[in-house]
Amino acid sequence: MEKAVFGAGCFWGVEAFFEKVRGVEATRVGYSGGTLANPTYEQVKAGDTSHAEVVEVLFDPWKVSYDELLDVFFDCHDPTTKNRQGIDIGSQYRSVIFFQNVKQLEAAKAKKEKLDQSGKLKNSIVTEITPAKEFYEAEEYHQKYFQKNGTLSCGIS
Which one is catalytic: 5, 10, 16, 69? Predict the structure, then answer.
C-alpha cells in the first residue's frame, strides 16, 4: 500500500470521491499542515491552527496510480480558488497536496502544470504542493460522514 494526502475543502465530500476509486483500500479524514499538535475539529474550523482539512488515502499502486488519484483530486474541487471551496472559507479549506516522496512531488507538479496550461480552467491553479506533515485523524463522527448520515453533499464545487 501507498499513501496520499489531499486537502480540497470539506473533507467529507473529498473522502466520498476517493472512496469510490477502484484501488483505494482505505480513507481517513483529518488535519495536516498546521502548527498545533492533536487539533480538534473546533480548533481547525476556527482557522487558528494553520491545519487544512485533509483526506489520507491508502491505495494499491497495482490497481490505481498516484497520477489517477491526482486526476480525482483536481476533479473533485475548484483548484483555482484560494482558501475556499463552496461555502467553506478559510485556509483550513485550501487546495493542497501533501507529497510523501519525490515521485509524488514530481507527479503533482507535472499534473498541476499540465492542467494549468490546458486552458480547461478560467483561472490559474493555486493548489499548494508541500511535503507531508503530521496527519492527525479527525474525530470518529467525521469518518465516513456521508455513509453514516445519508448526506449527499457538503457544498464543495
Answer: 10
Average pLDDT for runs of 10 along the chain of length 157: 96 93 97 97 95 98 98 96 92 97 98 96 96 96 80 53
Number of separate domains in the chain: 1
Residue 154 lies in a domain: no
Is 155 contained in some domain? no
Q: Is 76 a catalytic residue?
A: no
Residues whose CB falls within 8 Å of the CB of residue 29, separated by 6 or more in sequence, listed in order: 11, 12, 14, 15, 53, 54, 55, 56, 137, 138, 142, 143, 145
The cell numbers describing 102, all together, are 519525490
CATH code: domain of residue 33: 3.30.1060.10
| Biggest distance spanned by C-alpha atoms of the chain | 40
Q: What is the pTM of this model?
A: 0.93
DSSP 91: G
Domain membership flag for residue 106: yes
C-alpha Rg value of the chain to the nearest Å? 14
Domain extent at residue 32: 2-149
